[in-house]
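Structure in, sequence out. Go:
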């Protein structure tokens, strides 16, 4: 019997310590999970912090995964991974963190619970999410706004307050 496979896009970021290593470690841990297969990884980007700006810049990327997990089970895996890699956790909302992973798209699902909202409620306002997503899923349709990810990016990419710089491969 074939297990249902879902296509999911994740946003992943870090702004403490060896940021690129943190992203690579989290990606490897996800890929080792028996019900998660990382099928694509975007380029890495140095990104200006949003909301709380008095902190170090982030390194952000996007992952495309295939999973048999439900959205609720996937977020539980993600939260456990975040706690394992960042014992202290982020000090406050939008604060600095070793690793932060968000579910952006889960197939074409629209879901809103107390703990989880899919598609991510602010993804269409964030260049640091959309630019990496467009690397690996530019034609993915936002199931609420009914626009492709690359079209969402075109609406906001000119904003000077959202600097997103391709991370040098040697860094």
């Amino acid at each position: 019997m074939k297990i249902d496979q879902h296509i999911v896009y994740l946003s992943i970021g870090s702004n403490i310590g060896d940021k690129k290593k943190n992203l690579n470690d989290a990606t490897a841990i996800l890929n080792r999970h028996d019900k998660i297969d990382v099928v694509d990884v975007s380029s890495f980007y140095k990104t200006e912090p949003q909301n709380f700006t008095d902190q170090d810049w982030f390194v952000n990327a996007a992952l495309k995964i295939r999973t048999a997990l439900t959205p609720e089970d996937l977020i539980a895996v993600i939260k456990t991974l975040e706690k394992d890699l960042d014992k202290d956790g982020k000090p406050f909302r939008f604060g600095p963190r070793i690793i932060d992973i968000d579910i952006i798209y889960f197939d074409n699902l629209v879901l809103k619970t107390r703990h989880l909202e899919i598609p991510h409620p602010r993804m269409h306002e964030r260049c640091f999410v959309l630019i990496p997503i467009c690397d690996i899923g530019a034609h993915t349709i936002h199931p609420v706004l009914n626009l492709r990810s690359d079209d969402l990016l075109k609406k906001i990419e000119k904003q000077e307050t959202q600097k997103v710089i391709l991370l040098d491969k040697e860094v």
